[in-house]
Prior knowledge:
The chain is α/β, with parallel strands linked by helices. The protein has helices at residues 11-35, 39-50, 56-65, 73-104, 107-118, 130-141, 153-161, 174-179, 195-208, 221-229, 238-254; strands at 123-126, 146-150, 165-168, 187-190, 213-217, 234-236. The chain has two domains: 11-104; 107-254, NAD(P)-binding Rossmann-like Domain (Rossmann fold, 3-Layer(aba) Sandwich). This is TrkA-N domain protein.
Amino acid sequence: MNSSTGSEIPVKYIIAFALLVAFVFVFAVFFIESRGVGLYSAVYFTTSALFDAVGVSGGSMVSAAIPVYSRAFPSFIVILFMLGIIKIAVIGFVLAGIVDLITNIRLRERFVFFRIRKLKNGILVCGFNSLSEDLCQILKAKDMPFIVIEKNDSRAEAAELLNYNVITGDFGDDAVLKEAAISQAKCVIMASEDDFENLLGVVAAHYLNRKVKIITRARDEDSVSKMQRANATMCVIPEVLAGLEMGNKILQKVR
Length: 255
């Protein structure tokens, strides 16, 4: 789920809308000049003709304005034919844009948003990598609710493919943590490979929720004291733990 709240409108949607408005305007002017109707009626009839699947409305209006036996009528038949082609092209272009827009809305993000809002006492996993991926598998196996926050798009997509609740954004950003419902979280795990990122995350998380437990990863032992001063509940150095675990296994084999 992308944490950005706004995005620029693609140029192709603007072009499609401009073509639609231009089409309605040009032929509304035609009906005003040929029939002497008001602007409202002209726009109404033109819009009706535009979305008339069989083109009956447009044809009947033009034939009413131009008598069938008039010399100008054949010319307008050609015009109607061209209008039909233009209509198909414009509507097709607009519909293609609408379908593409609906696709880009990413409906899955909306479902994730509602699931997050309902989540109580969840765990925020900040940073998605090999370490946090293993952690997420454990949390999922134990049926413990959690949310992954990752700013890297490719890593966030990898987490989404595993059907995790994912927010794409910087966990050091207050707005992102609020979107992840940190006020309702039970625990926050800072799992980034960058100590400075984790430190910023600890500060932001504690500021937004004084009661939440904060477990953070540290690669450098010098970072541990800084994170503790920033109110981290626990600091973990995975490399040290892995070394101790490996040492214990070696000792067990030796014995």
